[in-house]
Amino acid sequence: MYSQYGTKMAILGGGCFWCTEAVFLQVQGVKSVVSGYAGGTADTANYKAVCDGDTGHAEVIRIEFDEDVISFEKLLDIFFVVHDPTTLNRQGNDVGTQYRSVIFYLDENQHLVAEQKVAELKSLGVNIVTEISPAPTFYLAEEYHQNFYARNPTQGYCNAVIPAKLAKLRSHIFSQ
């Protein structure tokens, strides 16, 4: 799916959206990242209801990216490096369906690329539990969640989790 600026969109869930947002904002070719909710059964979503497990939504990020600079496949490479796609409904100490590993594809090409990437990892013996589903309605998270790490760099959770994810990103980029 193209945005109004000729860039493409991707929707990924890899645990806490503060963490995934912080990572993908560092990636060359990524134009914007917004935190939100997707994949539930409720007709709306907000932080409290999602965290309480009342909606079935996952915390996700919607990435706008320039495909001339970075491909969807490369975004998935990063996605699989910076979160644990082998734990069902869990990322570290964050537990619940809202923290599940999920790729919400926006077109058939993204669907095929996601399926191929998961098959490739499984062929290497990685027990991937990542859900691959058509993109549902995306609900924008509350304003205070947007760009959370940049605005709250001393917040305890952020300091405990995000620097390690950013180190994995740097290691991945420099190992290529």
Q: What can you see in these coordinates?
A:
This protein is α+β, with helices and mostly antiparallel strands and 176 residues long. It is 36% helix and 22% strand. The strands form 2 sheets. Strands 7-6-1-3-2-8 form a 6-stranded mixed β-sheet, covered by helices on one side. A hairpin with a 2-residue loop joins strand 4 (90-91) and strand 5. Helix 3 crosses helix 4. It is globular and about 40 Å long.
pLDDT averaged residue by residue: 92
Structural class: alpha+beta
Distance between the termini: 28 Å
- Order of strands, widest sheet: 7-6-1-3-2-8
SSE topology string? EHEHEHEEEHEEHH
**Silhouette:** globular
The number of helical runs is: 6
In short:
It contains 6 helices and 8 strands. With about 180 residues, the chain is α+β, with helices and mostly antiparallel strands. The strands form 2 sheets. Strands 7-6-1-3-2-8 form a 6-stranded mixed sheet, with helices on one face. Strands 4-5 form a two-stranded antiparallel ribbon.
What's the SSE blueprint?
Elements: E1 8-14, H1 17-24, E2 30-38, H2 47-51, E3 58-65, H3 72-82, E4 90-91, E5 94-95, E6 101-105, H4 108-123, E7 131-134, E8 139-140, H5 148-151, H6 156-174
Parallel strand pairs: 6-7
Antiparallel strand pairs: 1-3, 1-6, 2-3, 2-8, 4-5
Structure characteristics:
six-stranded mixed β-sheet, two-stranded antiparallel sheet, 176 residues, 8 strands, 36% helix, 6 helices, alpha+beta
